[in-house]
Amino acid sequence: MTYSYTQISQYLSCPRRYRHRYLDGWQEKDTRAPMLFGRAFEQAVAALFRREDPAAMLFEQWGVCKDMGLTYSGNDTWDRMLQQGIQLLERFAQDGRARVRRPRSTQQIQFNRTLGSGNNFVSYIDAIGELDGTPCVLEWKTTSARYPEEPAGISALDPQLVCYSWMTGIDEVAQIVFVRKRLVEVQYLRATISDEKRQEFATLVDDTVRRIESGLFLPHSGIRFPQNPCTTCPFHRNLPRQTRSGRGRARAQTRSGPWSV
Ligand code: SF4
């Protein structure tokens, strides 16, 4: 069996959701515009380092999504996001702080690791390059709000960065955050991941895989706002109707949700 960071984080956010998605095969077509835009933008950044036309790549990749019935956030539109993306690519190129010296072999690199249980763990690293002359793992992120920069060193707590450091064995990691707002901004967030943090992550992965293979799929324990995985879970449409509308008794037999057990 092959596991990935996404699988581990899905299980940790809600084991039941993990089961629906990875074991029951309840895969929904994802139409979230920010997520699909992020994928298109990554292709454009990769093109930039290959000295191709990044704006043309963004237009092409984002164009593929245009008629997919995208779900936009706030005031976003397809055109507005494209325009912001082009501005961000220009800003990033002007900054010149990140470098990828061998863009054809050091972008979107697959790393594999054999776990103690004999299972495989796979990661795809956006790039291995340099930030301000320091060799490091590079990860691209697109967002509509700035990432926090305080307290100092907060990026070292990002589990995905810890995962990438664990997979590559490289201490230095950096998130390049492309912020889509009225005046676009590129954030350069660096972190040094300690050996202790990598070991902790390895233990977390082993422990999570053990739970999955033991068949432990309890649902998330209930609603607690504002951060609750149920509010964005594609399976929450199976919740009892009174939970979703706030009135009436349950009329539907549910297959999912903290109320279904
Ligand atoms: S609705 Fe909530 S409890 Fe149910 S699968 Fe989704 S996240 Fe888990």
Give an account of the 3D structure:
With 261 residues, this protein is of the alpha/beta class. It has a domain at 2-30 and 96-213. The chain contains 8 helices and 7 strands, in the order E-H-H-H-H-H-E-E-E-E-H-E-E-H-H. Strands 1, 2, 3, 4, 5, 6 and 7 form a 7-stranded mixed β-sheet that branches. Strand 5, helix 6 and strand 6 (172-179) form a beta-alpha-beta unit. Helix 3 packs parallel to helix 5 and helix 6 packs across helix 7 (195-213). The longest helix is centred in the last third of the chain and has 19 residues, at 195-213. The radius of gyration is 20 Å and the shape is globular. Residues 239-261 have low confidence and may be disordered. Iron/sulfur cluster (SF4) is lined by residues 14, 16-17, 20, 219-220, 229-230, 233, 235-236, 256-258.
Summarize model confidence as the mean pLDDT.
88
Task: Report the biggest beta sheet as strand number plus sense, adding barrel if it closes.
Answer: 7 strands, mixed
**Poorly predicted regions:** 239-261
Estimated radius of gyration:
20 Å
| SSE ordering | EHHHHHEEEEHEEHH
State the helical fraction. 25-40%
Structural class, please? alpha/beta
What molecules are bound to this protein? iron/sulfur cluster
> What's the number of helices?
8
The rounded distance between the terminal residues' Cα atoms is 28 Å
Q: Per the principal axes of the C-alpha atoms, what is the gross shape?
A: globular
Beta-strand portion reads 15-25%
Topology diagram in text:
Elements: E1 2-4, H1 5-13, H2 15-23, H3 33-49, H4 54-65, H5 78-95, E2 98-99, E3 107-114, E4 120-131, E5 134-143, H6 159-168, E6 172-179, E7 185-192, H7 195-213, H8 241-245
Helix pairs in contact: 1-2, 3-4, 3-5, 4-5, 6-7
The structure holds iron/sulfur cluster (SF4).
The site of iron/sulfur cluster (SF4) has 14 residues, from helix 2.
